[in-house]
Automatic annotation (TrEMBL), chain A:
Range of residues in the leader sequence: none
InterPro entries xref list: FAD/NAD-bd_sf, GMC_OxRdtase_N, GMC_OxRtase_C
Top-level taxon of the source organism: Bacteria
Organismal lineage: Bacteria, Pseudomonadati, Pseudomonadota, Gammaproteobacteria, Oceanospirillales
Keyword terms of this UniProt record: FAD, Flavoprotein, Oxidoreductase
Species the sequence originates in: Larsenimonas rhizosphaerae
Keyword flag Oxidoreductase: yes
Protein name as it appears in the record: GMC family oxidoreductase
Domain Glucose-methanol-choline oxidoreductase C-terminal as annotated: residue spans: 456-574
Family: Belongs to the GMC oxidoreductase family.
Pfam families: GMC_oxred_C, GMC_oxred_N
TrEMBL record, chain B:
Species name: Larsenimonas rhizosphaerae
Phylogenetic lineage: Bacteria, Pseudomonadati, Pseudomonadota, Gammaproteobacteria, Oceanospirillales
InterPro entries (alphabetical): Gluconate_2DH_su3, TAT_signal
Protein name, per record: Gluconate 2-dehydrogenase subunit 3 family protein
Record PROSITE patterns: TAT (PS51318)
Pfam families (alphabetical): Gluconate_2-dh3 (PF13618)
C-alpha cells in the first residue's frame, strides 16, 4: 500500500452529476447531461489517453500492446477471481488471459475491435420469444433468461444516432422493412442505411462470400466502426478512412479511423466548461443518503492515495460491467444475489460468450495477414436465435459465423501444423512457410443465464486497499455446447467448399468446463441487469437503480443474457435511451421512472 | 484539464523522434537505409547483462540458440539478440510482474485451467529455473547446461518441455520444469519477433523470415490485391528498413 495517512477525508464542492468511468458510456452521458445544463465531473480510475498517445507509429508495437496489454486494467490494482462451480475455490486472474478489461480514458472503447452491431428484436425480448416458441419444459429449469424490458423499436433511434457518431461502415440488410441484397437480411429494420459503405473486401471476405452463397446462406460485410471513408459525426468530430494498418484489437488507432471516445466524443466534450474529468481517481464506494431512496455522491482515492468525497446530485455508474457490479456490492446498494435461496439481484444473470474457430491452411493462397482492420470481415446470420428451428437441435440461441483477415501480428500469428515441433529448425521452417497462408472461421454465440452462474464478492482475495475482489462463478452449459457443435457442423460445410490443404478446429464439447487460462472474449455481461420487476433486476428499463432513483448504471452489466453479436452498439443505444428519459422526465421530476409494481 | 501534461508529452515525443532520426539523414536527401537507420547494437559477446549473472547468461545464450537456431531458414535467436531482449525484459517491469496480481494465497496445485498461480515473478522463474536446470544437468551429465554438447542440450530442453525433470527434488519448490520452459520459449519467440526497440529482432531478421511488415501500417491500396505477396520489407518503430 502506498497510501499516506488519510485519516481526514477531503470533501469537495457538490456537482450536479458524477460519472464513474470515462469510456463510451461515460463520454456519451457527459455529452447528454451537459447538453441538459448539468455541471458534470467524470472520475476515471486509469490514466489519461488522448489521440496524441496513438500517433503513428506508437501503437504499432505488438509486444507492448498485443502481448503485454498496455491498454488494459492492471490486475495488481483490481482483478477477478474465477471458479467453475460453488464447490471450487475461486482463484485470481493474476495476469489477463480469458478477457481484457480496458483501463484509462476511453476504456474498452479505445482498444476494442470496432465491430458495431445492434441486437435483434428477438434478442431484446428473448424470454417472450422463448415462451411462444418452445414447448413447456424444453428450457432447463435453472435457465433464468429475461426480456430486457426495452424493445427494438424503442432503441432504434438510439442505435441510429450512435451509428452516426461512430461513422458505421457496411451494408444495411433491412431498411424500413425492405430487404437489401448484400446486407444482413436477418437484422431488425433500420430507419436509415449505414452512414458509410463497407470497407474494401479482403481475399478472406471474398472466399467466405463465395462459399456461403453456394451453401444458400446470406453473407454480408461486418458492420465496422473502423470507417471506410472520411466522416464528420454529429458532434463535429472527424474520422479518416481506415488504412488496414494491422494494429486494431488491443491497440489505440493510429489513424483516426476507429470510432472511440477519443475520436468521436471527448474532444467535443472537453470544450464544455460544465464538464471536467479527473484521472487516477478510483471510486471505491457510492454513498447512500439517509433518505433510503437516493445516493449522495462517491468516495474515491486519487493518485496520491487521498480519499475524497465528491457529493453529487446524480451518480452515473459507467465502468466496465465487472467493475459496475463490484462497486454496487461494495457500496451495499441493492440486495446481493443468493443463488441458493434464489433471492437478491446484484450479481444475478451474469453471462459471457461462447466462441469456436477453425483455422484453414492454403498453400496456394497468400493472405498478407498484416493487412487487416478489426472491423473487416464477412459474416452470416443464417443461424440466429429466430432464423431456424433451434429446438430440433436441442438448444435455444444462435451464433454468427464469420471470417476476418489475420491475425496479423508476428508474435500472435505464427501457425504451424498440428503435432509439429514448437521450437528448433522444424518450427522455424514451418513458421516461415505457413505465415500468410491461413484463413480463420469463427463463431460467436448467445449465452444464456442460469441460476448458478453469478458474481459476488470473493471471501479470500482483496485489492491493495483491502476491499474484496469480484468473484465470478461460471461454467459452460449443455445448451450452449449443443449450439456450438451445431455451428461447428455448419463451419465444416464452409471448409468443404473452400477445400484447404488442411484445417484445425477449436470447439467446446458437451461436458467441457470453462477454461480461463485462454482468451475467450471480453464480452462479459449481466450482474446488474435491467428489467421490469425489482425482484429479478437491479435496474428498471431506463437503467435507473430500483433502490436509488438518482443512480443510473450504464453498460453491458444491464444485459439479462448475452446476445450473439458484439455488445457495444446496444451498450451505446441503451445509454442514449437512458439519457433521453433522464433529460425529458427525470430532471423535471426526480424520482422513480417506473413504479415498483 | 490543463495543457501542461500534454505539452510535456509532446516535448518528450519530439525528443524521442529526433533521437530516432539517424544522423546521416538529418538535413540530407539520402533515403533511409538499414545501415544508416539503425544504430549498430554491440556484438552479443560485448553485451553486459543487467539481470542475468554470467552463469545464467551462458545458459540463456546456449538455450535460445537451440530454440531458434541459425539454419537454412535464416538467422537465429543469437543473430536476433534474443538474449538481450530477455535480459532487458526481466530487468524491467515485466520481470518484476509490476502489473500482475501477486497477492496470496497461492494455490500452486491449481488445475492448469486456472492459469498462472505461482508465487514467482518472471524474473524469479528464470532465476530458479536456470538454477534447477543446471543442477539437473550436473547430476546427470556432471556439467552445467551451457557446457553440454548440442545433442545433450537438445535432450534436456525436450525434457523440460515435457516437464520431466522434477525441480522440487532439486530443491526448487513450486516451479514445474514445463512452466520454466514455457516462459523461456514464449520470451524467446517474443525477442525474435517483436520490434527491435525492445532489444531483440536485430535488423528485423525475425520479421524478414515471416514476411511481416513491422510498423509499416498502411495498406489501403493493397487490400484487394489478392494472392499477391506484399513486395516491401519491414519498417521498425525507429525507422529502420529491411
Amino acid at each position: 500500500m502506498n497510501d499516506k495517512d488519510n485519516s481526514a477525508m477531503k470533501t469537495l464542492p457538490s456537482v450536479d452529476a458524477v460519472i464513474i468511468g470515462l469510456g463510451w458510456t461515460g463520454s456519451i452521458m457527459g455529452m447528454e447531461l451537459t447538453d441538459a445544463g448539468l455541471n458534470v465531473v467524470a472520475l476515471e480510475r486509469g490514466g489519461d489517453r488522448t489521440k496524441e498517445d496513438f500517433l503513428y507509429p506508437k501503437p504499432a508495437d505488438e509486444l507492448k500492446y498485443g502481448v503485454r496489454l498496455e491498454m488494459m486494467q492492471r490486475p495488481k490494482q483490481s482483478t477477478v477471481t474465477i471458479r467453475r462451480n460453488a464447490d471450487e475455490e475461486a482463484l485470481p486472474q493474476r495476469h489477463w488471459t480469458t478477457f481484457h478489461p480496458g483501463d484509462g480514458v476511453g476504456g474498452a472503447g479505445s482498444h476494442w475491435t470496432g465491430v458495431l452491431y445492434r441486437a435483434t428484436p428477438t434478442e431484446l425480448s428473448l424470454k417472450s420469444f422463448a415462451d411462444r416458441t418452445f414447448e413447456p419444459g424444453f428450457l432447463p429449469e435453472d435457465m433464468t433468461i429475461q426480456d430486457y424490458g426495452v424493445t427494438y423499436e424503442e432503441l432504434e433511434p438510439h442505435y441510429d444516432f450512435f451509428e452516426k457518431v461512430a461513422g458505421l461502415s457496411g451494408q444495411a440488410g433491412n431498411v424500413q422493412g425492405e430487404i437489401i441484397d448484400g446486407g444482413n437480411p436477418f437484422e431488425g429494420p433500420r430507419q436509415n442505411p449505414f452512414p458509410l459503405p463497407p470497407l474494401p473486401r479482403t481475399l478472406t471476405d471474398t472466399l467466405f462470400t463465395e462459399a456461403t452463397k453456394k451453401l444458400g446462406w446470406h453473407p454480408y460485410p461486418y458492420p465496422s466502426a473502423n470507417v471506410s471513408g472520411a466522416w464528420t459525426n454529429p458532434y463535429g468530430m472527424q474520422l479518416g478512412p481506415c488504412n488496414f494498418c494491422g494494429f486494431c484489437s488491443n491497440y489505440g488507432c493510429l489513424n483516426y479511423s476507429k470510432a472511440s471516445p477519443q475520436t468521436c466524443v471527448l474532444d467535443a466534450l472537453k470544450q464544455r466548461e460544465t464538464f471536467s474529468y479527473r484521472t487516477h481517481c478510483e471510486v471505491t464506494r457510492i454513498v447512500k443518503s439517509d433518505d433510503g431512496e437516493t445516493v449522495k455522491g462517491v468516495v474515491y482515492r486519487d493518485g496520491e492515495g487521498q480519499e475524497t468525497f465528491q457529493p453529487a446530485g446524480m451518480v452515473i455508474l459507467a465502468s466496465f460491467p465487472l467493475s459496475n457490479v463490484r462497486i454496487l456490492l461494495l457500496s451495499e446498494i441493492g440486495k446481493p444475489y443468493d443463488p441458493v435461496a434464489n433471492t437478491g439481484v446484484v450479481g444475478r444473470n451474469f453471462s459471457y460468450q461462447i466462441t469456436g474457430s477453425i483455422d484453414m491452411y492454403f498453400k496456394d493462397h497468400q493472405f498478407n495477414p498484416f493487412i487487416s482492420a478489426g472491423g473487416s470481415g464477412q459474416v452470416i446470420d443464417d443461424f440466429s436465435p429466430d432464423t431456424f428451428d433451434t429446438a430440433s437441435h436441442g438448444f435455444i440461441g444462435g451464433s454468427y459465423i464469420y471470417t476476418t483477415q489475420g491475425p496479423g501480428g508476428a508474435i500472435g500469428a505464427i501457425r504451424t501444423p498440428p503435432g509439429s515441433a514448437s521450437w528448433g529448425s522444424e518450427w522455424k521452417k514451418n513458421a516461415s512457410e505457413h505465415y500468410g497462408h491461413h484463413m480463420m472461421l469463427g463463431t460467436t454465440g448467445t449465452n444464456m443465464s442460469y441460476r448458478d452462474v453469478y458474481l459476488d464478492l470473493d471471501p479470500t482475495y482483496t485489492d491493495p486497499h483491502g476491499d474484496p475482489l469480484l468473484r465470478m462463478t461460471y461454467d459452460w452449459k449443455d445448451n450452449d455446447m449443443r449450439m456450438t457443435q451445431f455451428m461447428a457442423e455448419r463451419m465444416r460445410e464452409i471448409v468443404a467448399e473452400l477445400k484447404p490443404d488442411y484445417h484445425t478446429e477449436s470447439f467446446k464439447q458437451v461436458g467441457d468446463h470453462f477454461d480461463p487460462s485462454h482468451y475467450q472474449s471480453t464480452h462479459l455481461t449481466g450482474g446488474a441487469i435491467m428489467g421490469t420487476d425489482p425482484k429479478t433486476s437491479v435496474l428498471n428499463r431506463y437503467l435507473q437503480h430500483w433502490d436509488a432513483h438518482n443512480l443510473f448504471v450504464m453498460g453491458a452489466s444491464a444485459f439479462p443474457q448475452n446476445m450473439q453479436h458484439n455488445p457495444t452498439g446496444t451498450v451505446a443505444a441503451l445509454t442514449y435511451w437512458s439519457a433521453k428519459h433522464i433529460r425529458e422526465r427525470y430532471l423535471k421530476a426526480p424520482g422513480p421512472l417506473m413504479e415498483k409494481a | 484539464m490543463t495543457d501542461a501534461p500534454r505539452n510535456r508529452q509532446r516535448r518528450a515525443f519530439m525528443r524521442n523522434s529526433l533521437l530516432s532520426i539517424p544522423a546521416v539523414s538529418v538535413g540530407s536527401s539520402l533515403a533511409f537505409r538499414a545501415s544508416a537507420a539503425a544504430p549498430e547494437a554491440p556484438p552479443l559477446h560485448d553485451y553486459y547483462p543487467t539481470f542475468f549473472t554470467s552463469e545464467e547468461w551462458q545458459f540463456i545464450l546456449s538455450a535460445t540458440d537451440l530454440l531458434i537456431p541459425a539454419d537454412d531458414t535464416g538467422p537465429g535467436a543469437l543473430d536476433a539478440h534474443v538474449p538481450v531482449f530477455i535480459d532487458r525484459e526481466l530487468a524491467g517491469g515485466y520481470g518484476q510482474a509490476e502489473h500482475w496480481y501477486m497477492q496470496g494465497p497461492f494455490r500452486t496445485d491449481a488445475p492448469a485451467e486456472m492459469g498462472y498461480q505461482l508465487p514467482h515473478t518472471p524474473a524469479a522463474v528464470y532465476r530458479l529455473g536456470i538454477r534447477a536446470t543446471d543442477a539437473h544437468c550436473r547430476r546427470h551429465f556432471s556439467k552445467p547446461f551451457a557446457a553440454l554438447d548440442k545433442a545433450t542440450r537438445t535432450e534436456v530442453l525436450s525434457a523440460l518441455e515435457k516437464g520431466t525433470p522434477d525441480f522440487n527434488a532439486l530443491g526448487i519448490a513450486n516451479l514445474p520444469s514445463s512452466t520454466f520452459f514455457a516462459f523461456l520459449l514464449q520470451n524467446t519467440r517474443e525477442g525474435f519477433l517483436s520490434d527491435p526497440i525492445h532489444g531483440g529482432n536485430r535488423h528485423m531478421v525475425g520479421w524478414k523470415m515471416l514476411g511481416f511488415t513491422g510498423a509499416r501500417a498502411s495498406f489501403r491500396e493493397w487490400v484487394d490485391q489478392y494472392d499477391q505477396p506484399y513486395p516491401l520489407g519491414p519498417v521498425s518503430l525507429n525507422g529502420e528498413r529491411g
